[in-house]
Design brief:
Layout: E1 12-13, H1 23-35, H2 39-42, E2 44-47, H3 55-61, E3 70-79, E4 82-91, E5 95-96, H4 98-106, E6 111-113, H5 116-123, E7 140-144, E8 157-161, E9 167-172, H6 173-176, E10 182-185, E11 189-190
Parallel strand pairs: 4-7, 7-10
Antiparallel strand pairs: 1-2, 2-9, 3-4, 3-6, 5-11, 8-9
């Protein structure tokens, strides 16, 4: 078992705990670990109470710094009848600049958050657990540059969803922004 000093949770290698991950998330992490063997030891998972999956409740319950949490929000917009979708990764202390940065990056007139039912149906993940690791093909994954910045309060780690509400993933922010398909964007987050 791997341990880390992040909050009061017990962290284990995610590749060893498929029971704590959405199937697509486990497949994404396992595939990434084949390409980059450091991933197997660096991407960790911890079980949580599913009723505490929302960021504010989780950080309070498990003594995690709010700045460690990275939210993954799904957005969409249209241009010339074509829908363009993206997952936006921003620290929980900020919010995604959907009306300016995301709209510009997707090259759409208006970008909006996906409704909860659609987000969970299309991602195959549970609300409160949506993660950039294992999203369906076709989603752009946009990460604010601040996600990679080492936060001493979090020991360089960030906490993200696991695809299910009953667990969370922790990994170095600098590693998350190097995950397959992630695009790092300056100014994606505001606040």
């Amino acid at each position: 078992m791997t341990t880390t000093a992040l909050g009061t949770l017990t962290w284990e290698r995610a590749v060893d705990r498929p029971d704590l991950l959405a199937a697509s998330t486990h497949a994404a992490i396992s595939g990434w670990a084949v390409v980059d063997p450091t991933v197997a030891d660096a991407v960790l998972v911890a079980a949580i109470d599913p009723d505490l999956a929302d960021t504010a409740a989780m950080t309070d319950a498990y003594a995690l710094p709010l700045s460690a949490s990275v939210n993954c929000v799904l957005v969409a917009g249209r241009r010339a009848g074509e829908e363009r979708t993206a997952a936006c990764l921003v620290r929980a202390t900020t919010r995604a600049d959907v009306n300016n940065a995301v709209k510009r990056l997707l090259d759409v007139r208006k970008a909006s958050f996906l409704p909860m039912d659609r987000a969970t149906d299309e991602s195959g993940m549970e609300y409160g657990g949506i993660t950039p690791l294992g999203l369906p093909a076709g989603y752009r994954v946009l990460a604010d540059a601040g996600v990679a910045v080492d936060d001493p309060a979090a020991g360089g780690m960030v906490v993200i969803g696991s695809g299910v509400r009953r667990s969370k993933i922790a990994l170095p922010g600098a590693l998350l922004v190097r995950a397959p398909g992630v695009e790092v964007v300056d100014g994606l987050a505001i606040g």
